[in-house]
Amino acid sequence: MLIAGFVMHRIKDIDPMQDTLRKIATISHIVGRVLDTATGLGYTAIEVSKAADQVVTIELDPSVQEIARLNPWSQALFNDPKIHQIMGDACEVVQTFEDESFSRVIHDPPTFSLAGELYSGAFYQQLYRVLKRGGRLFHYIGDPHSKASGSVTKGVLRRLQEAGFARVVRKPEAYGAVAYK
Ligand SMILES: C[S@@+](CC[C@H](N)C(=O)[O-])C[C@H]1O[C@@H](n2cnc3c(N)ncnc32)[C@H](O)[C@@H]1O
Protein backbone atom coordinates (compact mmCIF):
# COMPACT_ATOMS: atom_id res chain seq x y z
CA MET A 1 0.00 0.00 0.00
CA LEU A 2 1.21 3.53 -0.82
CA ILE A 3 0.57 6.62 1.31
CA ALA A 4 1.46 9.89 -0.44
CA GLY A 5 3.77 7.87 -2.70
CA PHE A 6 5.59 6.12 0.17
CA VAL A 7 5.36 2.33 0.49
CA MET A 8 3.86 1.20 3.80
CA HIS A 9 6.16 -1.86 4.00
CA ARG A 10 9.60 -2.67 2.69
CA ILE A 11 9.42 -4.42 -0.69
CA LYS A 12 12.93 -4.01 -2.16
CA ASP A 13 14.98 -7.23 -1.69
CA ILE A 14 12.55 -8.21 1.08
CA ASP A 15 8.79 -8.78 1.38
CA PRO A 16 6.31 -7.34 3.91
CA MET A 17 6.27 -10.60 5.90
CA GLN A 18 10.05 -10.64 6.36
CA ASP A 19 9.94 -6.90 7.09
CA THR A 20 7.37 -7.56 9.84
CA LEU A 21 9.33 -10.47 11.35
CA ARG A 22 12.51 -8.38 11.49
CA LYS A 23 10.72 -5.56 13.32
CA ILE A 24 9.26 -7.92 15.91
CA ALA A 25 12.49 -9.90 16.40
CA THR A 26 14.16 -6.74 17.73
CA ILE A 27 11.93 -6.77 20.83
CA SER A 28 11.65 -10.53 21.37
CA HIS A 29 10.51 -12.27 23.30
CA ILE A 30 7.00 -10.90 23.09
CA VAL A 31 5.16 -10.98 26.42
CA GLY A 32 2.10 -9.43 28.04
CA ARG A 33 0.15 -6.56 26.57
CA VAL A 34 1.54 -4.91 23.42
CA LEU A 35 0.85 -1.44 22.04
CA ASP A 36 1.06 -1.03 18.24
CA THR A 37 0.84 2.72 17.64
CA ALA A 38 0.02 2.65 13.91
CA THR A 39 -2.08 -0.24 12.59
CA GLY A 40 -1.67 0.18 8.81
CA LEU A 41 -2.53 -3.19 7.25
CA GLY A 42 -2.11 -4.79 10.68
CA TYR A 43 0.85 -7.02 9.90
CA THR A 44 2.81 -6.12 13.05
CA ALA A 45 -0.32 -6.33 15.22
CA ILE A 46 -1.25 -9.74 13.78
CA GLU A 47 2.24 -11.16 14.15
CA VAL A 48 2.76 -10.02 17.79
CA SER A 49 -0.72 -11.23 18.74
CA LYS A 50 0.53 -14.81 18.29
CA ALA A 51 2.66 -14.45 21.47
CA ALA A 52 1.09 -11.49 23.30
CA ASP A 53 -1.77 -11.58 25.83
CA GLN A 54 -3.42 -8.63 24.08
CA VAL A 55 -2.54 -6.15 21.32
CA VAL A 56 -3.92 -2.63 21.28
CA THR A 57 -3.48 -1.01 17.85
CA ILE A 58 -4.32 2.54 16.73
CA GLU A 59 -5.10 3.86 13.22
CA LEU A 60 -5.87 7.43 12.23
CA ASP A 61 -7.09 6.96 8.68
CA PRO A 62 -10.46 5.19 8.09
CA SER A 63 -9.54 4.54 4.45
CA VAL A 64 -6.53 2.47 5.57
CA GLN A 65 -8.88 0.39 7.70
CA GLU A 66 -11.22 -0.05 4.72
CA ILE A 67 -8.36 -1.39 2.61
CA ALA A 68 -7.30 -3.70 5.45
CA ARG A 69 -10.86 -5.11 5.46
CA LEU A 70 -10.43 -6.05 1.79
CA ASN A 71 -6.95 -7.50 2.24
CA PRO A 72 -6.80 -11.29 2.79
CA TRP A 73 -3.58 -10.92 4.85
CA SER A 74 -5.23 -8.48 7.29
CA GLN A 75 -8.24 -10.56 8.30
CA ALA A 76 -6.96 -11.52 11.77
CA LEU A 77 -7.21 -7.81 12.64
CA PHE A 78 -10.97 -8.21 12.53
CA ASN A 79 -11.25 -11.84 13.74
CA ASP A 80 -8.67 -12.29 16.49
CA PRO A 81 -10.19 -11.44 19.88
CA LYS A 82 -6.71 -10.65 21.24
CA ILE A 83 -6.45 -7.62 18.89
CA HIS A 84 -8.20 -4.47 20.05
CA GLN A 85 -8.42 -1.77 17.34
CA ILE A 86 -8.84 1.90 18.17
CA MET A 87 -9.53 4.51 15.48
CA GLY A 88 -7.91 7.86 16.36
CA ASP A 89 -4.74 9.89 16.60
CA ALA A 90 -2.09 7.95 18.51
CA CYS A 91 -0.87 11.24 20.06
CA GLU A 92 -4.26 11.66 21.75
CA VAL A 93 -5.15 8.00 22.34
CA VAL A 94 -1.87 7.11 24.09
CA GLN A 95 -2.50 9.89 26.64
CA THR A 96 -5.58 7.96 27.82
CA PHE A 97 -3.61 4.79 28.74
CA GLU A 98 -2.49 4.08 32.30
CA ASP A 99 1.16 4.30 33.37
CA GLU A 100 3.19 1.12 32.77
CA SER A 101 0.32 -0.71 31.09
CA PHE A 102 2.27 -2.30 28.19
CA SER A 103 5.25 -4.72 28.09
CA ARG A 104 6.19 -3.93 24.51
CA VAL A 105 5.56 -1.06 22.10
CA ILE A 106 5.82 -1.20 18.30
CA HIS A 107 6.05 2.25 16.82
CA ASP A 108 5.91 2.03 13.01
CA PRO A 109 4.84 5.53 11.91
CA PRO A 110 4.62 7.02 8.42
CA THR A 111 7.74 8.77 7.20
CA PHE A 112 8.87 11.81 9.25
CA SER A 113 7.76 14.36 6.64
CA LEU A 114 4.16 13.05 6.82
CA ALA A 115 3.77 12.64 10.59
CA GLY A 116 6.36 14.69 12.51
CA GLU A 117 4.30 14.63 15.72
CA LEU A 118 4.83 10.85 15.94
CA TYR A 119 8.58 11.56 16.15
CA SER A 120 8.33 14.29 18.82
CA GLY A 121 9.84 14.27 22.30
CA ALA A 122 6.37 14.81 23.79
CA PHE A 123 5.06 11.65 22.10
CA TYR A 124 8.12 9.62 23.14
CA GLN A 125 7.52 10.73 26.77
CA GLN A 126 4.02 9.28 26.54
CA LEU A 127 5.37 6.01 25.11
CA TYR A 128 7.89 5.88 27.98
CA ARG A 129 5.13 6.51 30.53
CA VAL A 130 2.88 3.67 29.29
CA LEU A 131 5.73 1.15 29.01
CA LYS A 132 6.47 -1.12 31.98
CA ARG A 133 9.88 -1.08 33.64
CA GLY A 134 12.00 -3.62 31.72
CA GLY A 135 9.79 -3.05 28.66
CA ARG A 136 11.04 -2.47 25.11
CA LEU A 137 10.02 -0.21 22.28
CA PHE A 138 10.77 -0.81 18.59
CA HIS A 139 10.75 2.38 16.51
CA TYR A 140 10.81 2.03 12.70
CA ILE A 141 12.71 4.94 11.16
CA GLY A 142 13.63 3.99 7.59
CA ASP A 143 16.67 3.00 5.54
CA PRO A 144 19.67 4.08 7.63
CA HIS A 145 21.70 4.48 4.41
CA SER A 146 19.29 6.97 2.87
CA LYS A 147 20.07 10.65 3.32
CA ALA A 148 16.63 11.50 4.73
CA SER A 149 16.35 8.66 7.26
CA GLY A 150 20.00 8.99 8.27
CA SER A 151 19.45 12.50 9.57
CA VAL A 152 16.07 11.68 11.15
CA THR A 153 17.69 8.76 13.04
CA LYS A 154 20.05 10.98 15.01
CA GLY A 155 17.20 13.15 16.31
CA VAL A 156 15.05 10.11 17.11
CA LEU A 157 17.81 8.50 19.20
CA ARG A 158 18.46 11.73 21.08
CA ARG A 159 14.79 12.43 21.83
CA LEU A 160 14.20 8.84 22.99
CA GLN A 161 17.05 9.22 25.47
CA GLU A 162 15.75 12.60 26.61
CA ALA A 163 12.32 11.00 27.14
CA GLY A 164 13.94 8.75 29.76
CA PHE A 165 14.79 5.50 27.97
CA ALA A 166 17.84 3.91 29.65
CA ARG A 167 19.38 2.53 26.46
CA VAL A 168 18.68 3.12 22.78
CA VAL A 169 20.20 0.75 20.22
CA ARG A 170 20.17 1.04 16.44
CA LYS A 171 18.71 -1.97 14.61
CA PRO A 172 19.78 -1.45 10.99
CA GLU A 173 18.49 -4.87 9.89
CA ALA A 174 14.98 -3.70 10.85
CA TYR A 175 15.50 -0.09 9.67
CA GLY A 176 14.91 1.22 13.19
CA ALA A 177 15.97 1.31 16.82
CA VAL A 178 15.05 -0.33 20.12
CA ALA A 179 14.66 1.68 23.32
CA TYR A 180 14.79 -0.04 26.72
CA LYS A 181 13.04 1.24 29.87
C1 LIG B 1 3.86 2.40 8.22
S1 LIG B 1 2.14 2.25 8.49
C2 LIG B 1 2.05 0.99 9.71
C3 LIG B 1 2.24 -0.38 9.16
C4 LIG B 1 1.87 -1.48 10.13
N1 LIG B 1 2.86 -1.60 11.18
C5 LIG B 1 1.68 -2.81 9.44
O1 LIG B 1 2.29 -3.80 9.85
O2 LIG B 1 0.90 -2.89 8.46
C6 LIG B 1 1.72 3.70 9.38
C7 LIG B 1 0.24 3.90 9.63
O3 LIG B 1 0.06 4.96 10.57
C8 LIG B 1 -1.14 5.64 10.28
N2 LIG B 1 -1.10 6.94 10.99
C9 LIG B 1 -0.66 8.13 10.54
N3 LIG B 1 -0.75 9.07 11.50
C10 LIG B 1 -1.25 8.44 12.60
C11 LIG B 1 -1.61 8.87 13.91
N4 LIG B 1 -1.40 10.14 14.29
N5 LIG B 1 -2.11 7.98 14.76
C12 LIG B 1 -2.31 6.68 14.39
N6 LIG B 1 -2.01 6.21 13.15
C13 LIG B 1 -1.48 7.08 12.27
C14 LIG B 1 -1.15 5.71 8.76
O4 LIG B 1 -2.44 5.93 8.26
C15 LIG B 1 -0.58 4.31 8.41
O5 LIG B 1 -1.64 3.41 8.21
Ligands, ions, cofactors: S-adenosylmethionine
Low-confidence blocks of residues? none
Number of helices: 7
Helices and strands, in order, run as EEHEHEHHEHEHEHEE
Strand proportion: 15-25%
Terminal Cα separation, in Å? Answer: 33 Å
Query: Could you tell me the mean pLDDT?
Result: 96
Sheet of most strands: 7 strands, mixed
Q: What portion of residues is helical?
A: 25-40%
What is the total tally of β strands?
9
Q: Calculate Rg over CA atoms.
A: 15 Å
Secondary-structure-based class equals alpha/beta
Principal-axis shape: globular
As laid out across the biggest beta sheet, the strand order is 5-4-3-6-7-9-8
Notes on the protein architecture:
This protein has 181 residues and is α/β, with parallel strands linked by helices. It has seven helices and nine strands. The chain has helices at residues 16-25, 43-49, 62-70, 76-79, 90-93, 121-130, 147-162, and strands at residues 2-3, 6-7, 33-36, 54-59, 83-87, 102-107, 131-140, 167-171, 176-180. A seven-stranded mixed sheet has the order 5-4-3-6-7-9-8, sandwiched between helices. The chain has a two-stranded antiparallel sheet with strand order 1-2. The longest helix has 16 residues, at 147-162. The radius of gyration is 15 Å and the shape is globular. The chain starts with a strand and ends with a strand. The chain binds S-adenosylmethionine. S-adenosylmethionine (SAM) binds at residues 8, 20, 38, 40-44, 58-61, 64, 89-91, 108-110, 115, 118.
